[in-house]
Design a protein that fits this description.
- By secondary structure, this protein is an alpha/beta fold.
- Among the domains are: 92 residues; 146 residues, no CATH class.
- Helix content is 30%, strand content 19%.
- The protein is built from 18 helices and 25 strands.
- The strands form six sheets. A 15-stranded mixed sheet has the order 3-6-9-10-12-14-15-17-19-20-21-22-23-25-24, covered by helices on one side. It has a two-stranded antiparallel sheet with strand order 1-2.
- Strand 14, helix 10 and strand 15 form a beta-alpha-beta unit.
- The radius of gyration is 33 Å and the shape is globular.
């Protein structure tokens, strides 16, 4: 609709005063249009194309933050193709990127408001070294020459969003405003430039990928809140990044005797005490002193509360202590350190007295490991230890026999143990601990699992704690001692137990009918007990155990053995049950995600499926999985049920 043209003023009318000017109609119309446009832009911001309005710009910041985190953050993998297999001793960020880079790019392109919000709130920055290959070196005529691989110039996927991994990561870091905490993850920042196959005799040093050093230095150390590094080379670069004041130890590695180990730990304690005895510099007065103080302040990791390091390369030949003092790391609380198999833990001197969550993984001796834990015993709330020594290293030159009192951890509530050691080393370690306030106990035995639960039950009983969560993953099948230890654990903690996971073989559960757990809310069983039909056996199998378990759950859910109160009835609907059965000789095959698959999924036995349907019909969450060898799949579903077998015999 067109506006009417203004009428002309009559000639006999008084002219308007010059002190009150009147804008021309054309100018007034133009100003109105600009105001309306500005108002429209204020309500609906123009999108990334610069033309069309963005109708989601006015979304509240709180909801926008939730949407961004849900869309950008990659979920932590907790399930394999089948069966639940969660390694709680290693951070998932070591292997899987925490951020979906493509989703991040798309969300930033929605509008300027979203881009600004993402840059101000997104704290996860991930660098993948596999997407940033460096130049290789080859020998031509006896001379080392640099050779650029084509993959270093052309992105393998041809995706512009991912191309230039170093440049993209640096831009992500520069977009974050100063002062905002940053969670930085570096996967393989270095690489081996020698194309020849790796050998144990070649040192584990590597070259930095082009541009990575400048990228890391582009962010202020004081803004880094968490640092995760997964390096397939040695520890030299990370040691230099965190501490440039290392000290040469008096004793060298490896610690093949108790005398050497004692000398090494004496040197370790000397450096630790010297680190804590150092005082901060006095306030500066002159300009030069102020400039020096500012320069020293830039080296302080003020916000770093989590440090995760894993080294999968060859052992380092560098024996310098990495010294992380409390003056430079005042906020450090969580440390996760996984060294190479032959790298000793005592290369790293942390401010143990302020650490609350600690993870250590190496094949060092119990003497050195326990000596380090003593320094953190008063502050630790969560402890994860990976015992990787597969042999008794003291057999040749002396054996460590602990004669000191047990180390008490008054604040420790979570203890996770990963065992790949001999039975003697494992028992020796557990016998040295005492945790009166422990609530969560997690034990995984990869090899030589027989007898793992017996020293664990002894440790729990000696500590006098009350468990609420119990996780057991063992390759053991039918150990009578472990079955007795499991019964003791379950009976002593039945009143408080809430979560129970058991992955292993067939244990003796004769006591299950008399077992009551009023607070139970999660049950997870992986039973390796399906008999191979090519081998005759009269032993009970997974079907018998599944029936025993589900009948007990059915009795528990209906109030049998419990006080029939409203509180107990409300808990019954919250109980989640999962049962997975697999062949007894295929422990590793169940979780295999690569290579040939020799297992097949089949329907559970009719009796098990019938009870499952009853429990599901009653409102419970019950999940059943059944896997057999591939040669058993065709005839497994054809087997008659127990009732059909009885009728056939009659």
């Amino acid at each position: 609709m067109t506006r009417n043209k203004p009428k002309k003023a009559r000639s006999n009318l008084k002219a308007p005063s010059t002190s009150e000017p009147v804008a021309s109609p054309e100018l007034l119309s133009k100003r109105t249009t600009e105001a309306q446009t500005k108002k429209a832009k204020g309500i609906w911001e123009i999108g990334a194309d610069g033309v069309n309005p963005c109708y989601i710009e006015s979304l509240p910041t709180e909801i926008l933050d939730m949407v961004i985190q849900l869309l950008i953050t990659n979920p932590i993998p907790t399930r394999s193709r089948r069966g639940l297999k969660v390694d709680r001793t290693v951070h998932a960020g070591f292997t899987s990127p925490p951020i979906d880079k493509v989703a991040h790019h798309w969300l930033r392109s929605v509008c300027r408001t979203w881009a600004k919000t993402i840059d101000a709130t997104l704290r996860e920055v991930h660098f993948d070294g596999d997407r940033a290959p460096g130049p290789m070196f080859v020998v031509v005529g006896g001379v080392m020459e640099e050779e650029i691989r084509p993959s270093a110039l052309i992105d393998e996927d041809g995706d512009e969003i991912i191309a230039g991994e170093v440049r993209r990561t640096r831009i992500d870091l520069e977009r974050i405003p100063a002062g905002v905490p940053v969670n930085l993850t570096l996967i393989k920042p270095r690489y081996d430039a020698d194309p020849a196959p790796k050998s144990s005799g070649r040192p584990g040093a590597g070259l930095m990928r082009p541009g990575v050093t400048d990228m890391v230095n582009s962010v202020r150390k004081g803004d880094i809140a968490s640092l995760t590094i997964n390096d397939d080379c040695d520890t030299a670069w990370v040691q230099h990044l965190l501490d440039d004041e290392g000290e040469e130890p008096d004793q060298h590695w490896p610690d093949e005797s108790m005398a050497e180990a004692i000398d090494i730990m004496k040197n370790f304690h000397d450096i630790y005490e010297k680190m804590h005895a150092s005082q901060p510099p006095k306030p500066r007065q002159t300009r030069r002193q102020t400039a020096l103080a500012k320069k020293e302040d830039e080296k302080v990791w003020k916000k770093l509360h989590t440090l995760r390091l894993i080294f999968s390369g060859r052992a380092s030949y560098d024996t310098i202590f990495a010294q992380l003092s409390p003056l430079k790391f005042p906020a450090l609380r969580c440390v996760e350190l996984h060294l190479h198999t032959y790298d000793p833990l005592h290369l790293w001197v942390f401010p143990y007295s302020q650490i609350t969550h600690l993870t250590l993984g190496s094949d060092t001796s119990n003497f050195i490991l326990l000596s380090m834990l003593k320094l953190a015993r008063l502050s630790l709330e969560s402890l994860t230890v990976r015992l990787l020594a597969e042999y008794e290293g003291w057999a040749r030159s002396g054996k460590y026999e602990r004669q000191e009192p047990c180390i008490e951890f008054p604040k420790l509530r979570v203890l996770r143990l990963y065992r790949r050691t001999t039975q003697e080393i494992f028992e020796q370690f557990l016998d040295a601990l005492e945790c009166p306030n422990l609530r969560t106990f997690d034990i995984t035995a990869e090899t030589n699992g027989s007898g793992s639960l017996t020293p664990a039950a002894r440790f729990i009983q000696r500590s006098g704690c009350t468990l609420r969560e119990l996780y057991i993953d063992t390759e053991d099948r039918r150990s009578l001692s472990d079955s007795t230890a499991l019964e003791t654990l379950m009976r002593d903690h039945s009143d408080a137990l809430e979560v129970f996971h058991l992955h292993g073989g067939l244990f003796h559960f004769d006591w299950l009918d008399y077992f009551t757990v009023p607070r139970l809310r999660e049950v997870d069983f992986v039973c390796f007990g399906i008999k191979d039909r090519r081998l005759s056996s009269d032993r009970p199998e997974a079907k018998d155990f599944a029936l025993l378990l589900f009948r007990w759950i059915q009795k528990w859910a209906t109030g049998g053995g419990l006080l029939d109160t409203e509180d107990s009835k409300s808990r019954h609907s919250q109980l989640a049950v999962r049962f997975c059965a697999a062949p007894e000789r295929d422990h590793c095959m169940l979780y295999r995600t690569d290579g040939p698959d020799y297992l097949g999924a089949v329907s559970p036995p009719q009796e098990v499926e019938s009870i499952q349907n009853e429990l599901v019909g009653a409102g419970m969450k019950v999940e059943v999985e059944w896997f057999v060898n591939e040669w058993d799949v065709p005839g497994y579903d054809e087997q008659p049920s127990e009732q059909e077998e009885v009728e056939a015999k009659q």
